[in-house]
Design brief:
alpha/beta; binds zinc ion; binds adenosine monophosphate
Length: 468
Amino acid sequence: MKIFNTLTMTKQEFVPIEPGKVRMYVCGPTVYNLIHIGNARPMIVFDTFRRYLEHKGYEVNYVSNFTDVDDKIIRAAAAEGVTAEEIAARYIAECKKDMAAMNVKPATTHPQATKEIDGMVAMISGLIESGHAYVRNGTVYFATRSFAEYGELSHKNLDDLRSGFRELKVSGEEEKEDPLDFVLWKPKKEGEPFWNSPWSEGRPGWHIECSVMAKRYLGDTIDIHAGGEDLIFPHHENEIAQSTCANGVPFAHYWMHNAFLNIDNRKMSKSLGNFFTVRDISKKYDLQVLRLFMLSAHYRSPLNFSAELMEAAKTSLERIRTAADHLRDVAENGADGPLDDAARKILEEARAFVPAFDGKMDDDCNTADALAVVFDLVRFANINVTDSAPKKLARGLLDVLTGLGDILGLIVLPKKETLDEDIEKQIEARQEARKARNFALADEIRDRLKAQGIELLDTREGVKWRRI
Ligand code: AMP
Ligand code: ZN
């Protein structure tokens, strides 16, 4: 399996530190608001990659943090007159709801920055002792020049960076020894949440949080570190500097970065007003549609969000689900008995879609091409499994299709919904009316159900319904 590694800018064969195990860290959201669909992109693509690693038999220790102390959280709290803790707790809970609705598996651990302060104080102390950090008036800075490899991930040259920064001195940071130095710990301002430390009552910088949480839950060296491409510089570059200097060993072997999600071909931003939360989308679509939409592009390609593409994703999901539904029907009502040679051959061919799918995913998690294999399988199933096909054949193909769906986190067979009692009664009444050849009444009931958002379909296997 190959992964495109931002560190080397090449696709590299994946070799884990420990055979059969993967240690993976994904930078999580800052929780001051409902997550937007841009935040959903890394969640969905790296959850899919994790599922694929598990399908290949790896045991994955998947860690994704919540940044729960930050200027934006403090501002949101002040605006509402509540504590930062309350804001963070609320939006962590909301984020978890959105993740569940997108079928993103919970991480092995979801650490929160504010619960890891001791580890941060310890790492910062170590960096000061070893000369990689220094204190100025209660603020601790990382001495970037003390780490010779700085800039390796973002492929930036230190001198260029330094001259670029010279013009941009941030007010209040004049005491820095070098414009590239960044904050590890900063003193509180009036009314802000704070923790005790040897340097000041204050709070950690954003970058140190991830270095400490990765170390605590995954170890000094990890296999894969992932996040959106905007994090490459400075966030991930700073994480590497801190962790490597603190631990004395390389930090992460593979760095994966997803490209951005745009809306109507423009960068998604709050100020432009072209901004959707996952919750907004859930009002119009099953979030499985959003998931399929995200997977329809390679994770390193920019992806444009538009109404047309979402409609296309909806149609694609329906195509998969219709095929799965049909396979389930045949698995329940098809022909009994063992498979003949022809049926066995069809099943064998269907199973060959799995290695084809794996081949696409092995190529730097190419979900777009892997999805194309799923649609090939759907076409194959539609052609080869008729209503009267053997139950065992339909069951075999359904297992292949649901298996591939699971890897992508797509639920191809949603649980059969239980209808409200009232609706069930109406369907029964319509059946009675039809039996009594009272078609006017039967049609009336059908129309009434339609008005309630339930469409009835008369099929050979009986009456079916779906929500419209
Ligand atoms: P944040 O809450 O801004 O720290 O972002 C959480 C994660 O979402 C990070 O991995 C970001 O890179 C990612 N992210 C934010 N906006 C977008 C976007 N428009 N497209 C793709 N990823 C994004
Ligand atoms: Zn991070």
